[in-house]
């Protein structure tokens, strides 16, 4: 796998038996010896440790950082309190989504995490508006009901954190940037660690009760069960936040004031709805229905939409999918068909998430 | 027992062969969550895609190893796809088939050749 970037935890993955695959220009563990199914279920039952160091970590320190981000996102950046994190969306002039990201008000700077596959796009895009420093650090996600106890063994102050809190604290010696968040639907933390401490922090966490290494395979099935979008699959430059069901990320002041890219498209959609909508889908049969599968209102009828993410949900115990359909077909309980290998498989529009989230609010 | 380059095994049983996938194949595929088998009585030609198996991550096809007719299928693996992971060479068999030309078995790999093939 020459030419691929390696994270600060690459040697640890090798020792843990991680099966490495190319992912967005990085060599990443897709699974360990237990396999995707067990790693998924372990995360929901105890705690999974994920290496997400491939994601882009940015530090914004410019005095204009708040105004700059509000020029790029339909999100309320100005009123985010110090020590708090929020989900954000970079939009384009036609209301499409350039990337989704997490940003945290760290007091005199903003910590911003973007998708690995979009980092090369996002960095100049944001740097055109304000000063951007790319952080060369590890990023570890610790997710699941045992995450708090495990992380508290290294620094008990994390017990005081609530969902979407962001703090700076040492776990070994250097400052870690810790947020109580993640992308699995579970309670947990994302931990930005100085590069030279990454392996020691990861190993210290793996020594705690209930913590096991989990690969990107299970991360994908966990986020799918949690109804969370994968950039490039469920959202992209051709989908708007309203179509994607992400209107909760656009706070009242920004809706009223506008002043973000694509406001003249997104604004009217916020008022009257979009013509199509992201929905959850439960196949009636056992076959997983994956990304790209066409959707139909009736057997042998025309295609009305497509599945954008899909597979087997280990916690659900059956196949689950997400996709886009015209809004008149988006009500939970609506019966549709997916064309799979020449057959029309019945599917039902289902509420998202598929698995109840368990954030510590 | 004979093996194909597509990681299937064939065990001769009277006039028929029993077909499944190898331990190597199941370990590469990962946890199976779905198996779709052909109808008994289906006439097949070598390399026809006759079985669909899906792991947590992806779908794969299993092809007919030789020309012939499906005579029976293992419904147990439809109910419990993980049987293929747990016992691929016995309980996790896929189907039985009769062969149009049993001498074609001679063209397949034996166990030593298959071991060398997967390295």
UniProtKB/TrEMBL annotation, chain A:
Which top EC class is given?
transferase
Q: Which GO terms describe its biological process?
A: glycine catabolic process; methylation
Q: Which UniProt keywords apply?
A: Aminotransferase, Methyltransferase, Transferase
Identify one Gene Ontology CC term for this UniProt entry.
glycine cleavage complex
**Record keyword Transferase present:** yes
- Which residue windows are coiled coil? none
Protein origin, superkingdom = Bacteria
Residues annotated as binding substrate are 190
Region Disordered: list its residue ranges: 284-307
- Which SUPFAM superfamilies does the record match to this protein? Aminomethyltransferase beta-barrel domain (SSF101790), Folate-binding domain (SSF103025)
What residues does the GCVT N-terminal domain cover? Answer: 10-253
Q: Does the keyword Methyltransferase apply?
A: yes
Record InterPro entries = GcvT (IPR006223), GcvT/YgfZ/DmdA (IPR028896), GcvT/YgfZ_C (IPR029043), GcvT_C (IPR013977), GCVT_N (IPR006222), TrmE/GcvT-like (IPR027266)
EC number assigned by the record: 2.1.2.10
Task: Provide any one GO MF term from the record.
Answer: methyltransferase activity
Q: Which reaction does it catalyse?
A: N(6)-[(R)-S(8)-aminomethyldihydrolipoyl]-L-lysyl-[protein] + (6S)-5,6,7,8-tetrahydrofolate = N(6)-[(R)-dihydrolipoyl]-L-lysyl-[protein] + (6R)-5,10-methylene-5,6,7,8-tetrahydrofolate + NH4(+)
Instruction: Report domain Aminomethyltransferase C-terminal positions.
Output: 276-355
Record-stated family: Belongs to the GcvT family.
Q: Which PANTHER family match?
A: AMINOMETHYLTRANSFERASE (PTHR43757), AMINOMETHYLTRANSFERASE, MITOCHONDRIAL (PTHR43757:SF2)
Question: What protein name applies here?
Answer: aminomethyltransferase
Q: Which organism is it from?
A: Pontivivens ytuae
The gene coding this protein = gcvT
TrEMBL record, chain B:
PROSITE patterns to which the protein is assigned, alphabetical: BIOTINYL_LIPOYL (PS50968), LIPOYL (PS00189)
Pfam family, any one: GCV_H
| Keyword terms | Lipoyl
Q: Name one GO cellular component term.
A: cytosol
All residue ranges annotated as the Lipoyl-binding domain in the record? 16-98
Q: How is the cofactor bound?
A: Binds 1 lipoyl cofactor covalently.
InterPro entries, alphabetically?
2-oxoA_DH_lipoyl-BS, Biotin_lipoyl, GCV_H, GCV_H/Fam206, GCV_H_sub, Single_hybrid_motif
Q: Tell me, in a sentence or two, what this protein's role is.
A: The glycine cleavage system catalyzes the degradation of glycine. The H protein shuttles the methylamine group of glycine from the P protein to the T protein.
* Necessary cofactors: (R)-lipoate
Q: Which GO terms describe its biological process?
A: glycine decarboxylation via glycine cleavage system; protein lipoylation
Locate the coiled-coil region(s) and give their ranges. Answer: none
Residues where N6-lipoyllysine occurs?
Answer: 57
Describe its partners and assembly state: The glycine cleavage system is composed of four proteins: P, T, L and H.
Q: What is this protein called?
A: Glycine cleavage system H protein
Q: Which family does it belong to?
A: Belongs to the GcvH family.
